[in-house]
Amino acid sequence: MLSSLMGYYSLIFGLCISLLIILFSVKNFKNSNILDSKILLFSFLQLVLVFVSFLGLVISFVNSDFSNETVFNNSHTTKPLFYKITGTWGNHEGSLLLWLLVLTLFIFIFLVKSKNQLKKYRILTVIFQQIIIIGFFTFLIKTSNPFNYLFPIPEEGLGLNPILQDPALAIHPPILYLGYVGSSIIFSSVLAATTLNYINNDWAKHIKGWVLISWIFLTLGILLGSIWAYYELGWGGFWFWDPVENVSLMPWLALTALLHCILVLEKRSLFKSWIIILSIATFTLSMCGTFLVRSGILNSVHTFANDPERGLFILSFLFVLIFISIFIFFVFHKSDNKKLSPIFLLSKETSIVINNWFMMYFLSVVLIGTVYPIFLDVISSQKISVGPPFYHKLIIPFLIPLLIFMAIGPRLKWIKSELKDKLSLAILLIISVLLSLFIVRNFETNYLLNSILIGSAFYLFFITVRDFFSKKTQRLSQNIAHFGFSLLILSILFNSIFSNEIITNLKVGESYKDDDLEIVFNDLTKENKKNYVLFTGVFSIKDKSFNNILKPELRIYNQPNIITSEADIKITLLQDNFITINTVKNEDYFNVRYMIKPFMLWIWVSVLLIALGGLISLFNKKHEE
Amino acid sequence: MKILKLIFIIFLIFPFHHLKADETDLQNKIIKNLRCLICQGQSVYDSDSEFAISLKLVVKNKINDGLSEKEIYDFLTEKYGEWILYDPKFNKNTYILWFLPLLIFLFGGAIVFKKLINIK
Amino acid sequence: MKNKTITIIVIFFFIFVFLIFYKGLNNSNIYKPSNNENKIIPKFSAYSFFENKLINSENIFNQKKFYLLNIWASWCVPCRDEHPLIMSLKGNDKLEIIGLNYKDNNKNAKKFINDYGNPYSIILLDKDGIRAIEWGAYGVPETFLIFENQIIKKYIGPLNSKLILEIESFIK
Questions:
Q1: Which residues of C touch A311 (CB under 8 A)?
Q2: One domain, residues B62 and B83
Q3: How many contacts, defined by CB atoms under 8 Å, are there between A and C?
Q4: Structural domain includes residue A410
Q5: What CATH superfamily classification does C45-171 receive?
Q6: Spatial separation of the C-alpha atoms in residues A169 and A336, rounded to whole Å
Q7: Who's near C115: CB < 8 A, 6+ residues apart?
Q8: Residue A50: which domain range?
Q9: Chain A within 8 Å of C31 (Cβ-Cβ)?
Q10: Are residues B79 and B42 both part of a single domain?
């Protein structure tokens, strides 16, 4: 109880400090040339207060203090300690507190790391960021208080959904929020810089670090979410174009475009207006995503418990931010249209323009697909669904030119360039296409599309591998990231084309047999665990490349009353062998799903490589300083 | 370099020569495109709800009766509305849905073209 | 000025988006299929519960009276709640109540009928749930009011006394 009180009052004080910081900032803006140290001090104090509040919630969870409503709703005395702790942010209120923690942390880091920057720029960034922070404080305290008091104090909590008790899912929110909050710094920074007409090479060099950090964490956060979905949900898929997934992908696409533009702005004076718009858009998309996911406006497997009152608050807050941005952009931004520096057709700048073109297209596909049902429902009361087929049809064909541009673009120099080694580039292209035709030959009906697509991915693959051996270390980060992307597309394509699946109903002792494969249901064992009853199926699987025993599980939880199915997955370099069992109502047999999923490991590795590219770039930047 | 490529090709060809049965293919394709009405965030393929299990059976029967994919979708939308399909139908409700991204692509292309037209 | 027109367009666009989202908040996000009213009833065949004979739907809904098709199961809790209300409709000679037992175990269903009463003139079996889908149902309980082979009204979820009054007013 004490921890909850401590947590609550820390929040109140934290909110007051926001107002103080703004006060000091406004005063400091006009007078003196150096940053008032009080601003730094109070930012740190605010961070400490939010941290104390967060700690208070964690302690309440660890102690299973059910006088706290959030703990009551989301925890249980029998939950393992690790999941009690991570359950702190596995709910709406706690996750918002985590958002607030990262928001205050990042603005403090920003202040510390921007000592060489203009004072006015730093102050304005702080002010804009504090507006966001005040919004979150108010949202938290008014509609999503993590420290509501329950009386009489319940004996036991309502327990966390066992599907959410998973290590990948435990760290997925913090990592993702680091990405989202990074984009808030970019947002505040770009508004500050626009007001001061500071959008130039220096600002680009300075903000690039933040763009990279945000992008890396967002990439990793999305990866963790996919990994969790694949291993935990048991349907063998890792991306479903579900609204919650789309909502994390949209800022990522905007950030990727922004990252490439910043590379240009570092060196040349181009794309300023566009960069401002992109920077604003990235954080707007993050907030829009928060709105879509937490307001209950959309139907999704993984939305939080939703509440229209909260939705209205986020919606209003989001539009306040949008209107502030529009105001600043149109009032303060003076585009230097006078000297329209020409861009030559064959140049790195062109490649980046094309990159942005494609990223914005993909972004529009995901955005329209996600929100169109809402618009249609409100305007004409028709309810439709937009799912994977829509996204595949609109995105996949456009990957082909994207991959080819990704292969050629980076080789071009700034301003004006020639395409060197035209011959070897052409030869590699022919080899790629032939290779893919060879591989796809017996399979798909979408023969032509798939082979060209795989061909383009191979092309990027070979080009990046070849570039890797040409010892240009300054392009290492870009090379690895692009290579990772080609590997990602190849892995996903091979995974979808060559996946195989058997669904059958078996009783204990029965077996399934066909030309390639034999599955024997050997045994079913029962064991009592700490908070569930465990049934383990023992299966012998034998096929041409695999001969092993797999043990999928059925877990019957007591609190809440759920049965979950845990897949057993044998992971090898080339493929995953994946099996799940499920009970069938009124019957004594089990529904068994056995899948062969090629290249799953490489899908994860390729995303790690993409993030690694970003990390290397960040490291290079630090080295330069 | 060439040896690497050769090894890569060989690596890929070996494990993957199962040819799937066409019927289950069509069945799976259809039920992956159907949205479960009970667990509304899942496809019928992924869902284990009673409705999903029954619907899988219905689809299988309809395929055996010789109905085409389109006819099965029509049958189900007649019962449950267009919402049940993940692939939005192309009708007056969804023209904007399908065309707007493409229009944006063309619009983006026009902007790109304008920028690049300053070729020295 | 070009800049001013763009600003105004942008502002109006965002106001429009805000209004749409605001209205969307108040709509439910759970989907319920629209009622298939005024549709012809589906043709199907099913085994009867007690006699275990295969019956064709054309032989059931062929008289000039109202029919109430009630989809139920012994494992369904709201079905238990609405059952007494259906029992209350039993005596009415303008209405024949047909039961469709959905994905159930015969023993449990029999116990349900013994414990709570049998308002049905016939109980049909739908062990695999296919017939319910022919009717456009997706869960239990669901109830259909039928006249002259047309669905007059469809009720998703358990009946309550208000809906029973509605049914009775239709029958008159």
A1: 25
A2: yes
A3: 50
A4: yes
A5: Glutaredoxin (3.40.30.10)
A6: 47
A7: none
A8: 1-165
A9: yes
A10: yes
| Nearest residue of chain B to residue A395 (CA atoms) | B101
Domain range for B102: 90-120
In a domain, A344, yes or no: no
Q: Are residues B79 and B102 in the same domain?
A: no
Q: Which of A494, A501, A497, A488 minimizes the C-alpha distance to A235? A: A501
The rounded average pLDDT for each run of 10 residues, N- to C-terminus, in chain A (625 residues) is 89 93 88 81 94 94 91 86 90 92 95 89 94 95 90 82 79 93 95 91 92 96 92 84 93 96 86 92 93 82 70 92 93 70 75 93 96 93 92 93 89 73 78 77 70 88 85 78 94 88 87 86 88 89 85 83 86 89 83 90 96 93 75
Q: How many domains does chain A have?
A: 4
Note the residue count of chain C: 172
Same domain, A31 and A157: yes
My answer on whether B55 and B100 are in the same domain is no
> Based on the structure, what is the number of domains in chain B?
2
User: Which residues on chain A are in Cβ contact (under 8 Å) with B116?
Assistant: 343, 345, 350, 353
Contacting partners of chain A (3+ CB pairs under 8 A): B, C
Confirm whether A337 is domain-assigned.
no
Asked if residue A560 has a cis previous peptide bond (ω within 30° of 0), the answer is: yes
Task: List C residues 72-131 in contact with A (Cβ-Cβ < 8 A).
Answer: 103-105
Describe the strand order of the beta sheet including A575-583 as a list of residue ranges: A500-506, A590-598, A575-583, A568-571
**Chain C residues whose beta carbon lies within 8 Å of the beta carbon of residue B38:** 138-139
Would the CB atoms of C103 and B50 count as touching at under 8 Å? yes
Q: Is the ipTM of this complex over 0.95?
A: no
B45 and B66 part of one domain: yes
Q: Residue ranges per domain, chain C?
A: 45-171
* Cα A385 to Cα A565: distance, rounded to the nearest angstrom: 27
Residue A236 Ramachandran class (φ > 0 left, ψ -120 to 50 alpha, else beta): left
Q: What totals of helices (H) and strands (E) does chain C contain, helices first?
A: 5, 7
> Which residue on chain B is closest to A497 by alpha carbon?
B16
Task: List CB contacts (< 8 A) between C33 and chain B.
Answer: 37, 79-81, 83-84
Q: Does A375 touch chain C (CB under 8 A)?
A: yes
- Is B9 in CB contact (< 8 Å) with chain A? yes
Residue of C4, C13, C25 to mutate, testing the A interface (most A Cβ within 10 Å of its Cβ): C25
Q: Is C14 within 8 Å of chain A by CB?
A: yes
| Residue A210 and residue A182 in contact, taking contact as beta carbons nearer than 8 Å | yes
pLDDT (tens, 9 = 90+) of chain B, 120 residues, equals 555 565 565 555 544 444 344 667 788 889 999 999 988 888 898 888 889 989 999 999 999 998 999 999 999 998 898 999 999 999 888 999 999 999 999 999 998 888 777 644
Same domain? B78 vs B94? no
